[in-house]
Each structure stands twice: as structure tokens, then as C-alpha cells.
Amino acid sequence: MLHKISIPTPFPVGPVNVYLLKGKDCLTLVDTGPKTVEAQEALEAGLRAVGVRVEDLDQILLTHYHCDHVGLLENLVEQSGAKVYAHPFTEPLIAREPAFEAARSEFYQGLYRGLGLTEAQKQQAIGQIYDYLEYVGVAHVDVALREGDRLPGHEEWQVVYTPGHALDHLSLYDAVGKRMLLGDHVIKKISSNAFIEPPHRAGDERPRMLMIYREALRKVQTLDWEIGYAGHGEEITGHRDLITKRLADMERRQANVLETVRSGKTTGVEITLAMFPRHLEQLTLIISETVGHLDWLVAEGKLRVEDDNGLWRYFAVEE
């Protein structure tokens, strides 16, 4: 049995949906909400409505490490002793390992420098990233889940690795019930941002998140399901048409980015501000969106990138 609980967040995206799975001998919470008093109270009330306390939880599954999905984990584990399941990439993030945190900070400094952000813009963007950490406790993953695994205690649910919105993103698929638990992989009324992330292993190439996301969308599009439970908003039906629309929207935005470069904008920040002049308060999001399309255009040979003393400049490759 599946129960949806809506949790308030202080973010523009609005409430986040968490889900309680009631198995024969197992209670699993999928995601937690942010670390706020209001979120904790809403979660406890939602659990009470179906006859459950936080202390009764056996397991917590994290779809991905974003503060609105993992923030209360530390509190909930302390209260319940629940075992935590997540992708292998989640552990260093949720544990806040100092070396990992330092490497992430260095990555974003280098990224924003290469894109041409001013010092003030860099501080704004990095500040936005670290402001979110105020809403996340420190915890650990007990069991790493990978593609094809079954969720213990709920064997009908199979793990599907769906990276792109986050590199550690997991979804769950019930082939018999024709259902999916989607996290933020697919949302009905808004498109998920493919956040730029550093590689999880030192020396690896930066992951091209939008390209990764597109492939994961196509994978989920091929699966046979009738209802999807998303991390935000309403349930999803007709997923093949919705994903086709999302992919077409990406194609249109890619064309707009290419035209912006052809108009004479050559640095990442110039292209970003030209594309999203009304969303400067969400600098990290609009940078991720732009860089995702620049990566895609470079990979397709439509753009080339040149290093101008540490500043990356993008130029159209004319046919």
C-alpha cells in the first residue's frame, strides 16, 4: 500500500511529496522533506493519518540528495533507527565528508571562473548552493542500491537508475502494478533542471548532466506504467507523451542557445543572462540549464569551445 504525504518547503518549487510504503512486515518512507519544523510537523501528521509514527519506520529510501528530499533524514533516523537506502553516490554527500566538500567547492569555483562570472556572481551562485545545506542534516547510507535491485520488504518495486536531475537519482518501478515512484525525474507541470555536478571520483570528466538526463528520460519512456508518483505536484499519466514533449522542449531551447551564440554572446555567463534575463535570483539553476545545452551543442559539433586564458568562449561551427 502506498500513501502520499505533502510536505511544505521554503523553496519556490513549493511542497514536496514523500511516500509511505506499507508492506506486510515493513514500513518504508520514500524521501523526507527539508529540515524545518514545519516539514517535521507535516510529516508526523501525515504518518498519524495512516496510523504510523516516525518511530515505526523500518527503512528510508532517498531518491536523490537534494535538500527538500533528504533534509529530515538525520532527525528521522535518530527517532526510528530506520535503515537508509540510496544510490552509492549519495553517501559522501549526506555524510558531508570534509574532503568531498572541499573538492565540490573547488569544482564550482573553477566552473564559474571558466564561464566568466564576476566575483560577485560567483559568490552569489556558490552562496545559493551552500544556503541549501541549512536544510539538510548529516547522516549515512546503510545500503547502496543500484539498477535492477529490489527494495527489501517491497519486492514488487525494482530500482531504476535515473540520473540527470541529480547524478545519484533513483526511481522505483512496479512492473506488475504498472506504477513508478519518480522522485524528481519526471514532474507533471514543470521540467526538472539538470543540475551541474562535479564528478564523484577525482580525475573523472565533468558529467554532462543534460545529456545524461535525456538518456534516462528515454529509458523511463520505454517502461510500461500507467501512473507515476512524482516528488512534486500531481500524479502522472500518459508518460510517453509527456516525455516526448519534454524532449521536444529541450530541442527548442538548444536551438535558442545556438542562436544566442551566433548573435555574438561567447561566454557562459553572457549566454546565460541573454537566455534567462528574468531569473537572476536563481543563478545556479539558469547556469545549469545553459551549460547543459552548451555541452550538448559541443558534443554534436554545432559549437566549439576555446580556452581564453582560463575563460571558455563558445563559437558556432558553421556547416
Concise description?
The protein is α/β, with parallel strands linked by helices and 319 residues long. It is built from ten helices and 13 strands.
Layout of helices and strands:
Layout: E1 2-7, E2 16-22, E3 27-30, H1 37-48, E4 59-61, H2 67-70, H3 73-80, E5 83-86, H4 90-95, H5 98-115, H6 119-131, E6 143-144, E7 150-151, E8 154-161, E9 170-174, E10 179-183, H7 209-222, E11 227-230, H8 239-262, H9 268-275, H10 283-299, E12 303-308, E13 311-316
Parallel strand pairs: 3-4, 4-5, 5-6, 10-11
Antiparallel strand pairs: 1-2, 2-3, 7-8, 8-9, 9-10, 12-13
Feature tags:
Sec-metab_biosynth-thioest; Glyoxylase-like metal-dependent hydrolase (Beta-lactamase superfamily II); hydrolase; 13 strands; WH-like_DNA-bd_sf; 2 domains; alpha/beta; 6-stranded mixed sheet
**Number of helix segments?**
10
Tally the structural domains.
2
The counted number of beta strands is 13
Highest-level CATH class of the largest domain: Alpha Beta
What percentage of amino acids are in beta strands?
A: 15-25%
Fraction of helical residues: 25-40%
Low-pLDDT stretches? none
Mean pLDDT: 95
Cα gyration radius (Å): 20 Å
Write the element-wise H/E pattern from the N-terminal end onward: EEEHEHHEHHHEEEEEHEHHHEE
| CATH homologous superfamily classification of the largest domain | Ribonuclease Z/Hydroxyacylglutathione hydrolase-like
InterPro entries: Metallo-B-lactamas (IPR001279), RibonucZ/Hydroxyglut_hydro (IPR036866), Sec-metab_biosynth-thioest (IPR050662), WH-like_DNA-bd_sf (IPR036388)
Domain Metallo-beta-lactamase: 15-232
GO molecular function: hydrolase activity
Protein name: Glyoxylase-like metal-dependent hydrolase (Beta-lactamase superfamily II)
